[in-house]
């Protein structure tokens, strides 16, 4: 997993899973604490996501609210779109362009 960017936009690549969750959580929360306005999370390079990785994204969403910010997902891969629909998290998370995947 790699995350690059600043406090306004981050690009996540590789796998966001149980092995990378702690590092990802630290980077996301730091970016949220240091910036202002929306934090855009570009997921175009994301290869895999598990339940722990989804938990990291939800935790960042809650942290953003506490900081008076909003977490916005951009370029959500189709498999993650299906997961967000199946878990109904697409109703909670801000997703640029909306969801284009059909439900499972």
TrEMBL record:
Q: What SUPFAM superfamilies would the database entry show?
A: SpoIIaa-like
Under the heading CDD domains, the entry gives: STAS_anti-anti-sigma_factors
Domain (STAS) ranges: 1-104
The UniProt GO MF terms for this protein read: anti-sigma factor antagonist activity
Q: Which domain of life is it from?
A: Bacteria
- Which family does the record assign? Belongs to the anti-sigma-factor antagonist family.
The protein's name in its UniProt record: Anti-sigma factor antagonist
This chain's source organism reads Streptomyces triticagri
Q: What is the lineage of its organism?
A: Bacteria, Bacillati, Actinomycetota, Actinomycetes, Kitasatosporales
